[in-house]
Write a structure and sequence with these properties.
Blueprint (H helix, E strand, L loop, with lengths): L20 H28 L4 H12 L3 E2 H8 L3 H13 L3 E6 L2 E9 L1 H23 L3 H12 L1
Antiparallel strand pairs: 1-3, 2-3
Length: about 150
């Protein structure tokens, strides 16, 4: 399960010399600016539908995990049940997802993208992909691998 952003974060014990604070601050600023750039077009497209980032996260996960449960999506996003209700209800109301009761346990609802929901997810995700492709094209392959290593850490 993904750690909540509000989880207590302790400073890792490092055997090597710590990264200077100014380098960390530079990384924070770069991350923030990059994130805003990467999601800008996607967020605009979502906003045209009256949707936001949380809606895309639901669509993204459901596209990669067909018939996933609402609980699985909630854990992927890292929000409470209450916070999950609005995006799920919005997407269902707009005909972008279907909720199907699990045959063995009718209390568990599985999500499936409708054709319209799958098309929107592809379009929004492709906008994000274009930004990453453009950035990765500007740096050596080793730099992209190092970036992935840092992000996964």
């Amino acid at each position: 399960m993904k750690a909540s952003p509000r989880s207590a974060i302790s400073r890792p014990a490092m055997e090597e010399e710590a990264v200077p604070v100014d380098r960390i601050d530079e990384a924070i600023l770069a991350f923030h600016e990059a994130y805003q750039t990467v999601i800008a077009g996607a967020d605009e497209l979502l906003a045209q539908q009256g949707l936001g980032r949380s809606h895309h996260k639901v669509l993204y996960h459901a596209a990669r995990h067909p018939r996933c449960s609402v609980t699985e999506v909630r854990e992927f996003i890292g929000v409470t049940r209450q916070a999950m209700q609005r995006p799920i209800n919005d997407l269902h109301r707009l005909g972008l997802i279907e909720m199907v009761a699990t045959p063995g346990n009718r209390r568990v609802h599985q999500l499936m993208l409708t054709e319209q929901g799958a098309a929107l997810e592809r379009e929004v995700t492709q906008l994000v992909r274009y930004r990453f492709e453009a950035a990765f094209a500007k740096v050596p392959a080793a730099s992209a691998r190092h970036w992935l290593t840092v992000m996964k850490a």
